[in-house]
Amino acid sequence: MDETSENEKIEFDLLLQAIYQKYGYDFRNYSKASIRRRIRHRFSRSGLKTISEMQHKLLNDKQFFEVLLLDLTVNVTEMFRDPSFFKMIRKTVIPELKKQPFIRVWHAGCSSGEEVYSTAILLNEEGLYKNTLIYATDVNEAVLDKAKKGIFSIDRMKDYTRNYRNAGGIASFADYYTARYDHAIMDNSLKKNIVFSDHNLVTDDVFGEMNLIICRNVLIYFSCDLQERVFGLFWESLRSGGFLCLGSKETIRFSTYSDDFENVAEGEKIYRKNGKITLI
Amino acid sequence: MNVSKLKQKVSKHSKIQDRKYKAVVIGVSAGGQKALKTILLGLPSDLTFSIIIVIHRHSDSDDYLERSLNSECRIRVKQADEKENIKDGVVYLAPPNYHLLIEDDNTFSMSVEETVNYARPAIDVLFESAAYAYCPELIGIILTGANYDGSRGLKKIKEMGGLTIVQAPETAEVGDMPRAAIAAVEPDHILPLKEIGPFLMDMNLEEE
Ligand SMILES: C[S@@+](CC[C@H](N)C(=O)[O-])C[C@H]1O[C@@H](n2cnc3c(N)ncnc32)[C@H](O)[C@@H]1O
Predict the structure, then answer these.
(1) Residue A78 domain-assigned?
(2) B187 upstream amide cis, omega within 30 of 0
(3) pTM, entire model
(4) How far is residue B126's CA from residue B110's CA, in Å, rounded to a whole number?
(5) How many Å lie between the alpha carbon of B197 and the closest alpha carbon of chain A?
(6) Which residues of A touch B125 (CB under 8 A)?
(7) Do residues A119 and A55 share a domain?
(8) Using a CB-CB distance cutoff of 8 angstroms, which residues of chain A are in contact with residue B113?
(9) A110 and A29 in a common domain
(10) CB of B140 within 8 A of CB of B164?
(11) Which spans in chain A are helix H?
């Protein structure tokens, strides 16, 4: 490796260390290629000369840090992303949840909420929503605010309607939102059993017993060690027989928790925690 | 005269094994399936480097392309998995709808961030991360396509001392992407499609 790129790598590590010490957000064990790409992206727009200069600015300028924080937490999401996944949830998870008197769902890394509302719609159509509490968490408070409001761009609704249908939706998707100018406002009845809260998968702990955990397209940004921590967190948070759902490119199969989960639908990354199943 | 041009003049195909390459990254779009087949069909199963490919395809395509290439080629072809260790002698394709990146520790990582040049996976994202992980021991190749994705990434590879190749536009099903790359980079080699496979074989370090 040549010296400049070696030095640059040191500078990146120091910058992440500085962010952690100053603001408490720990990106040190995220996948490096992606995190460096996001830092470079902001760096190239900042007019700064070196990554070390950027570190100095980050320490002294909270607003600049907040802009970078948005860059570092990739928030791209959509409703009913991977429709086949939601279809499989209906087929395999819902029948089991129907046996439970009360259902707790945790959406970890929920971003701006599109995925959470998708689940709420699905549970509603299956007659389960009234007995459900959904915890929707993310590390990024700006996207959580958006999720709470439940107001999305009307431009996306065409795609979402198609996703909804491919996901096995049984009603008219347009009934779930009100169109106002260029916005779609999600129906209030969908919000009432959702609790939005900030929670950092890297540094925060278990907060409840879940029947279903959905954490998709978050672990791809984590190193193996960090993934391992999060699987531990999920294992502790899940009741026996509870379900864990990951993104289409994520798997629990290379982790030490692999044996603690059976495949429900490996293709759709739906797993189930082993152990004796009890009600409530 | 620049050395690589000189080399190109002296011998197109005589062995230029002055360095060992760790990986070849290929970016391809419209017309890509045929072009990839042309290149990969001739390759042996024991290449001394890996080949990592971004092909633009529909976001909900399955792995049909990987499977069909794998059954027709001698070299192993598969879709890249998250955190997978990258091995010599294997051809990896980026999964649809995810950007593919290469980590310093020779593993893959992925991202669902915004499209780049209207594409996810984007060639630029793969090429730039590969440049940081492998250069100068990296070869970047741009093939047929109807946009300009990959030009930036190829430029990065060149800046960081890697070897850059572009398919001769007149041999491409769609010449826009090669032309954009040539305009952006001044590549080390501009090769007709048929010669790219043999060129890669020459880069193979056979054990004597
Ligand atoms: C690409 S989005 C995925 C959104 C949604 N789950 C989906 O699949 O469409 C990744 C989300 O993970 C969040 N995230 C990143 N690091 C996190 C952490 N340490 N704890 C909790 N959430 C995190 C980001 O803020 C972002 O909203």
Answers:
(1) no
(2) no
(3) 0.93
(4) 10
(5) 28
(6) 37
(7) no
(8) 34, 38, 74, 76
(9) no
(10) yes
(11) 3-23, 32-44, 51-60, 62-72, 83-88, 94-97, 114-125, 141-149, 157-166, 188-191, 224-237
Same domain, A156 and A188: yes
A200 lines ligand 1 (CB under 6 A): yes
Do A140 and A162 sit in the same domain of this protein?
yes
- Ligand 1, atom 15: nearest CA belongs to which residue? A73
Cα A125 to ligand 1 centroid, rounded to whole Å: 26
User: In CATH, what class is B21-202?
Assistant: alpha beta
Q: Does residue A90 sit in the same domain as residue A64?
A: no
Please write the tens of the pLDDT for every residue from B121-142. Answer: 999 999 999 999 999 999 999 9
Mutate to test the pocket of ligand 1, among A106, A139, A237 (most ligand atoms within 8 A of CB): A139
Nearest chain A residue to B112 by CA distance is A76
Q: Which residues of A75-97 are buried (b: 16+ CB within 10 A; e: fewer)?
A: bebbbbbbbbbbbbbbeebbebb
Write down the domain spans for chain B.
21-202
On whether both A175 and A242 belong to a single domain, the answer is: yes
| A254 in reach of chain B (CB within 8 A) | yes
Complex ipTM value: 0.93
- Tell me, yes or no, whether A173 and A55 share the same domain: no
Mean pLDDT (whole number) for B26-50: 96
Mutate to test the pocket of ligand 1, among A29, A73, A198 (most ligand atoms within 8 A of CB): A73
Q: Are residues A95 and A234 in the same domain?
A: yes
Label residue A141 left, alpha or beta by phi (over 0 means left) and psi (-120 to 50 means alpha).
alpha
Mind listing the pLDDT tens digit for each residue in A43-56?
999 999 999 999 99
User: For residues A185 and A151, is the Cβ–Cβ distance under 8 A?
Assistant: yes
Q: Which domain holds residue A130?
A: 83-273
A245's tokens: 């759902």
DSSP annotation of A266: G
